[in-house]
Amino acid sequence: MLNSIFKVNQNKKERVLRFIIGLAISIPFFTHGYTFSYILIGIGGILIFNAISGVCMIYKLFGYSSCPID
Questions:
Q1: What's 6's DSSP letter?
Q2: I need a surface site. Which of 8, 10, 16, 70 has the fewest CB within 10 A?
Q3: Is 41's pLDDT higher than 80?
Q4: What angle do CA 25, 57, 51 make, to 5 degrees?
Q5: So what's the pLDDT on residue 23?
Q6: 12 vs 29, higher pLDDT
Q7: Res 9: pLDDT
Q8: Buried b vs exposed e over 30-57: b needs ≥16 C-beta within 10 Å?
Q9: What is the 3-state secondary structure (H, E, C) of 13-64?
Q10: H/E element holding 4?
Q11: Nearest-10 Cα torsion for 49, 50, 55, 58
Q12: Separation in Å, CA 38 to CA 21, 22, 23, 45, 47
């Protein structure tokens, strides 16, 4: 059950792109105490988690996968 939930559904290019965008969004706003900064840190954190794990839950919801077919 758990293995099917966390099956990788992103290709490597997309994972690298998500990681770079996640860092670009979250790092510049890390030191500010504004509400908007916390929102951007949250979005960046989600993108970084997606990049590291290779699993996008929105892709799972729609049944999409950008991985090449085995």
A1: T
A2: 70
A3: yes
A4: 45
A5: 92
A6: 12
A7: 86
A8: eeeeeeeeeebbeebebbbebbeebebe
A9: HHHHHHHHHHHHHHCCCCCCCCHHHHHHHHHHHHHHHHHHHCCCHHHHHHCC
A10: helix 2-5
A11: 120
A12: 16, 13, 14, 10, 14
